[in-house]
């Protein structure tokens, strides 16, 4: 006691602000979070199970149910104050077993199979498939300029590549993804019979990247597939030499009735302000190929790790901390929507929600979306505490799909920002598997989220 | 002319410092460097050739000779002012064909093979191998405390793991590597018959990591191998249950006569200050396993890319820019030593040397070693120009093995600093292969070096 008083007085004499000793305490606490995560972190082994033993887990699938039960059991082991399932009805789309595509009837090449994946939500082709000429466009604008005459009866091939000059690959993704989400309906409106979309990918390989499409109300629903980047390059090249070649597409995906599923929630109750809630989350569902490792198994295990680290440090948060594993981010966002709905109905006060859904790569920072400048400035004031861990990118481009529906004036929506260079090589592909995840990168991510949660819990936001 | 005068006056009226427009010009120039590297970069395809077609290339090997010829031809294509080979005699150590190790004569397990790799430079075992009890230590200090009595006739097993709490894995490497470099001689002095070293690795797997050892003058030279981290864990566990178990080791590496080899140098002559030289470099040799992809194929292709980008932008540097592919970093440093020797003899004035030898991962910054504070401050003043590319870590921990011998008061020795999380999973293993390299990460690294070279060339350092 005497000693700390002395310290305080000395600090006063030296004109050091009181904040300095708090900062030092914070710095030590954060250091301990990282030490624990790097030496005793559990995320990597948890992720191994989720990806290798359960695997791909599209909403409505048996594997999604297994993932729910797994997440519940994992959090049950952690001695939290509360672990519960939140009911949510989810869409149930299945790929079918007949996905096949080929370049046919070309003067310059024999029938040539190409790798495609139905876009999530796509309708089927006729049972024997469909065959049509192909019209290649770089954009929806270009498509509209072609008009009905040139599109009617054809397969529209959207082939605008990633803009590689973006340093953050997510920006390139956003610049290309309208082809996949809106392309099918825009083509349908002009009488096209199907859509082939160049994969939203940062690399060139044989893996097609699936992802959701959005059929517009009233527009004809036509089948749509993603083609691998290599396949797209081949098709484009052949079209230049022979614009009468045809494309054959056969697939039988279908929509089944909605299925009861769950968000999985674990909670440590706040000791001083239990009514103020801080959420960390990722989504538990994935596409139906690969293992949903970086998208978004990593976000789930990192979110659980935040609670586990608190527990193993014996830290009692002032506010209530929740890890939420959202269901159905990929093709419906029903989990995120339901979570926000319930929160609103119960009058819950969320002060911050952090989502990890950009891969389990080396942490680079956080995007913080808030309507309150003071909130952003408070987060910025923690820069020196986060910089030693490589968390330099603190900016306003925050948010996340699942936490989006929580948006109101009181909550900061925060996106965990890992290094982006590798994500869109494997995003939504059969290649998004456990072996692409590095243990240290993954654990550093969980620790980074835990550090931010610690600061928000201690100082508010 | 009128227009630019007008602009200048306006700037003057608005009290903008003249520097602002230079900064803007720099920012545009750097942006263009990245655009070019990301869209038309050649490093990745060059690296594919070097790693997949030439492969591992230990000094003195035929593959090292192939790498020299390849690098010369690649730079010849670029239309540089000068491409030349600098002669250097290099050591020639070969691994032999009989590497074998097993845990034997244990009461609790049948003979159990383990994965080992001779340390570079190790002497051979007797032709039939050697078999001895094992004494496990965590450090050279602990070994010395055991003393001759407990070490004599035994195999010393250095098993201190990486300290995972370091955020930069290179720090953990430095904290463990004395076991490999000095361990064999220290054990030899106490009468040990061989040394087994836990791999200097950030992960746990079956790949042993080789690397150089340094036999001390006058100390007995005993055979030494690296054991994989999994193997080390097994051995340590078994020793706890049965400290009389024995280890069998058989290998026949040997030293052959020195071989004539070369540093490969490409140069663009400076237009204003041709006598001031800026070096970018990596090392062309690798260990004799894997493909030497991240160590250090990436550094070589990135260095060439710096010159190529200048050429393709039509940029004429004021100072002379040299890309140097150093020979024999791994087991002798003869190339780096020779380069500095010749530079000194010819009275060359190097103002900066940048080495990329920490993997082709996402760029994080530069370490800048200089004896002149003003030099460091000048580099720091470029922070805002580099930050948009994720280059936040500008500190004083600079340098690199090959450029080290250039050290004097006039030259800044700069280490390119990529993200470190994955490097020591694969460093010096059979797993350091092309498929571990991501195209965008690699090209971003070359662009980052090119951006720094541009600034140093323009403003001096
Ligand atoms: Zn996702
Ligand atoms: Zn190296």
TrEMBL record, chains A, B:
<dbReference type="GO" id="GO:0070573">
    <property type="term" value="F:metallodipeptidase activity"/>
</dbReference>
<keyword id="KW-0378">Hydrolase</keyword>
<protein>
    <recommendedName>
        <fullName>Carboxypeptidase Q</fullName>
    </recommendedName>
</protein>
<keyword id="KW-0333">Golgi apparatus</keyword>
<dbReference type="Pfam" id="PF04389">
    <property type="entry name" value="Peptidase_M28"/>
</dbReference>
<keyword id="KW-0862">Zinc</keyword>
<keyword id="KW-0645">Protease</keyword>
<dbReference type="InterPro" id="IPR007484">
    <property type="entry name" value="Peptidase_M28"/>
</dbReference>
<keyword id="KW-0458">Lysosome</keyword>
<keyword id="KW-0325">Glycoprotein</keyword>
<comment type="subunit">
    <text>Homodimer. The monomeric form is inactive while the homodimer is active.</text>
</comment>
<feature type="domain" description="Peptidase M28">
    <location>
        <begin position="263"/>
        <end position="450"/>
    </location>
</feature>
<feature type="signal peptide">
    <location>
        <begin position="1"/>
        <end position="22"/>
    </location>
</feature>
<keyword id="KW-0479">Metal-binding</keyword>
<keyword id="KW-0964">Secreted</keyword>
<dbReference type="GO" id="GO:0046872">
    <property type="term" value="F:metal ion binding"/>
</dbReference>
<dbReference type="InterPro" id="IPR039866">
    <property type="entry name" value="CPQ"/>
</dbReference>
<keyword id="KW-0732">Signal</keyword>
<keyword id="KW-0121">Carboxypeptidase</keyword>
<dbReference type="GO" id="GO:0005576">
    <property type="term" value="C:extracellular region"/>
</dbReference>
<dbReference type="GO" id="GO:0006508">
    <property type="term" value="P:proteolysis"/>
</dbReference>
<keyword id="KW-0482">Metalloprotease</keyword>
<dbReference type="GO" id="GO:0004180">
    <property type="term" value="F:carboxypeptidase activity"/>
</dbReference>
<keyword id="KW-0256">Endoplasmic reticulum</keyword>
<dbReference type="GO" id="GO:0005764">
    <property type="term" value="C:lysosome"/>
</dbReference>
<keyword id="KW-0865">Zymogen</keyword>
